[in-house]
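Form 12-C: Joint structure prediction
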Amino acid sequence: MRKSENLILIAGALLLLVVLPCLNAFGAEGSALHVSDYTINLWGKYLCYGILAVSVNLLWGYTGLLSLGQCLFFSLGGYALGMHLMLKIGKLGQYYQAGNNPRELPDFMVFLGYPELPAHWVPFGSFWFAALMVLVIPGLVAFGFGWLIFRSRIKGVYFSILTQALTYAASLLFFQNKFTFGGNNGLTDFKTLLEADLNAPDVRRNLYVATVVLLMAVLGLVKWLLGTKFGKVQQAIRDSENRVLFSGYATTSFKLLIFVLCAVIAGAAGALYVPQVGIINPSEMTTDKSLEAVVWVAVGGRATLLGPVYGAILVNVLKSWATTAYPDYWYLILGGLFVLAVLFAPNGVAGMPQQFRDLLVWWKSRRSALPDTAALSA
Amino acid sequence: MFSIQILLRRWLLPVLLGAGLPMAAAWAETVDPALRQQVVEAVLQEDEEQAARIEALAETGSDWAAGVLALWRAGNLQVDRPADGPELLFTLEGAVARRLDTGESFVPVSPKEVATTSKIRKAIKNATDLIAVASPDPKVRAAAINKLGMSQNADYLPVLLARQSKESDAAVQRALREGIALIQLTDEDDVVCLAAIGVLGELRSLGSVDLLQAMTVSDDESEAAKAAAGQALHLIERYQKQVETVGSLFRGLSAGSVLLVVALGLAITFGLMGVINMAHGEMMAVGAYTTYLVQNIFGGGVALSMFGFGLEVPGLNLTGAAYQSYFICAVPASFLMAALVGIALERGVIRFLYKRPLESLLATWGISLILQQLFRLIFGPNNVQVSSPSYLSGSFVISDVVLGYNRVFVIGFAVAIVFLTWLLLTKTSLGLFIRAVMQNRQMAACMGVRTERVNMLTFGFGSGLAGLGGAFLSQLGNVGPNLGQSYIVDSFMTVVVGGVGNLIGTVGSAIGIGMVDQSLQSLTDPSMGKIITLGSIIFFLLWRPGGLFPTRTRSLEG
Amino acid sequence: MSSQVILAAEGVHKSFDGFKAINDLNFYLDEGELRTVIGPNGAGKSTFLDLITGRTRPDSGKIVFGTGPGEEITSRKEYEIYRLGIGRKFQTPSVFSEHSVFDNILLGLKGPRGVFRTLFSKMGSAEQDRIEDVLKTVGLFDKRRDRAGSLAHGQKQWLEIGMLLAQEAKLLLVDEPAAGMTDEETHKTGELLLRLAGQHSIIVIEHDMVFVRQIARKVTVLHQGHVLCEGSVDDVQNDPEVRRVYLGRGKS
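Section 2 - Result
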């Protein structure tokens, strides 16, 4: 198992990191080997979801914490970078070009009648500050909330319900215009990142490559983590938290660290997602989005290293196809997929080979058992 | 023609009714030809005296005249100016044009709207207001008197004083005293003015607050008047606070009852059974859509589409009281329908997941997606219209506190279903089984309780309660595919705050959250109020994970 | 044998919703002693262990652990109490079923338990040896690569005891070790506990009187959260109070 996992990891990395971008850059337009800019962009999005799914899996699959707040952290990371991108629109903004915005405020602020840039927006003019905040803000929110929730020994479904409530409250807050983050329209109409034109094919390709690199790094981190004693404690918490507590481990600290780590990973994924799709708004941080990310993990196979990535890609490819081919039935398919995965394939796609093998063994043993009993009775 | 009909129905009727003119009566009565002539002259003679003539119409006290004036003011009075004949004023009743001078119908040649100026519109308003003071409906009379009083126009004083001597209705008498006092505030004579201030204070007149306030800082008033106004204000403001407190208590209670109705089902399925049913909101939607269906069956029927197949649901075409009674049938139907869906859900999915609560959360979320999409496919993606029966719309006022019928009904309904739930759980054998199974599954099974069946019925009961909640929400807001989503977080919070497995706790927390929510909403705006409430709940639960009434158990093995 | 007291519970009370689970309990355990606690259902035996391990906190009274002046543990957290050297085996076997037998012992092994220490700690050969020793002691060496969840019931109990040994706990709290075991397994468990006594202080809670007879030196009888009597197995069985309480039960 380990060996095949490594093999898939290396092959996948090669394909995603080298082959696809090369085909995009050098493949002749129209030839069978050409990968379109659209496809690169689409896969960049899928892989951002993949990173998010890995974080969900690290929490749910390996630690038993079903957080319905991962999309909140994803969005917080997205908003942090989105703020920077908004400030870099500058002279390219519609209001500026119409001559109504000499202070170069983000367009929505002009629209909502802000006299000047709110103080907490100012430092986001610096890319490095924004990049730091992409990690720090989700991390801090997760630390504060996690500290309170784990200290109160809230676990299981209560943990899920409270993270759901947190996400819901946050989305309501972001929907408010006066919260200075653009209300329900969110942040959009980005132009440049680090002076590069966000709509240029090579910039998009670079963003895609950055996403693959981050995905590989996160997968490497998870793999390393699971091998340490920390990883063993973490999985033990999932199976029997009381026993871990009575084995002298302060489970609270372990859970807190994992929670913060996963929030940071989700935030980074969100920050890469936003420039690729060009918008971030509060509808990204609803609990439904978090649950959708859980579906990817459930379908791909939880508590497996690569399952979440399979799931994110699989479900989203299916979604892209179904929402155009059968728009009315997409939610039926998604809901049904979820129910079926929970009921019949608890280990998801990644667990299916094993499930088939077990089934085969069971079937064979039944077949071979039958003549024996027949012989006995004869 | 069609558009005019719509116009009449949408705009004119409310305008007329608002001015206190019972339509049917106004048009059916035989109108004195002299009055007709007077009205026609008032409309058509455009000279210096026109405004005075219009105001003089008030002396006729005729509702018919007021109706015509109101039409005129709204721009719905027409004039026909044929090249070869006299000008003819007319009104439109549906497609029929009716001459104003004779009341006969005719066919206009070149109709045109009769124009008004702002001066004329003011005169019309004065006239219709004065006519309304004599309206047969006491509510309309009181409202009209109030309006005249607030204008502080001394010209109206004789009208009000004259009315005072023949008015028999107590509420209108009060309005008259208030109106007269309001006008008398402007009186030159200090004695009259002081007396008026005294009356307003005594009446606790909420409407006079701004005027009295202006008096206390005005330079034109005497010191005595200022002091008296200050005193009266004090009385009124104290009263106002009481009214506001009672009003927000009432609103809080009714908001709490809504929460209670939507959360009670969850208190059963989640609280007692420990099943995280993310499709609970959709059970409510099932109830709400059932109400919609029942309403349409009582009415004109409805066409549904299911996966491309059209389905005509025939209607009984009932009207009046029989139609209004649809809601009484819709309540049990909603319960049954949601209970059936709940039982199907329990048998099909949840029973395999009793030992895996997180998985049941996920599977039921999948179900909720499916149900939402089914609602969209069957009933369309937009909200459907559920009209409130007449006995649930409207409101009554008890000493300045407005009590909406539907809010009062919410409270009564909540009390009723909590009582029924309590009865079921404590007085029936099913309730005994439910409590036994929830406390100790194995032991109950050993005692011969069919736990599978009890699970099924309990879940069905909880879902049915959600359906009742939905039937009920259909009377308060929109019914659409996302109905359940907007309540699911609130319901879970209510149950958890109350203490899981504790029905009394759920009652307490629902009312508490409703009260907090309403008072916060009156301090800030509704959406901020909701956010702050949710935030406080989260912090409360982080501080007290067991909720208000934690269920203590000896073994917490998990 | 030394006669220093290692665990003292004095005047401990605990009630749940009015039900007095522990009522003025006074209990002393000497270092290296193997004590058996018996009592009818609801006598407060498991609650007593919950109180010692910090799972619940007493309403009043105090519990002191350690020789010499000792340390009050009444309001300590579970993992802190554990780190002082009190290990508990639960009534229902609770091992980490997804981990291998070896990893179960590894997780129990005495050593740093901080978050960051576990991230960067490497297993040395000394630890490897120690784990193998423990596995041999509890007779699970051959099964060390198996998933703990796949072990038989009795083997899980031994594994759990092994985890306590790896921890080098001074005081072992063993809750109904013989429950659900075959006679042979029960006997082996008894021998294991007898071997461990002396190096460790042990409190065993048990119903099975055959087993109690096998291991017991001194027996404490709990009744309604209170110590009814203490003494040898024979003394206790002949005590009229105890007979009355048990109503004929456990006289075998």
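Section 3 - Comments
Chain C touches chain B through six residues (CB under 8 Å). The two ends of chain C are 31 Å apart (CA to CA).
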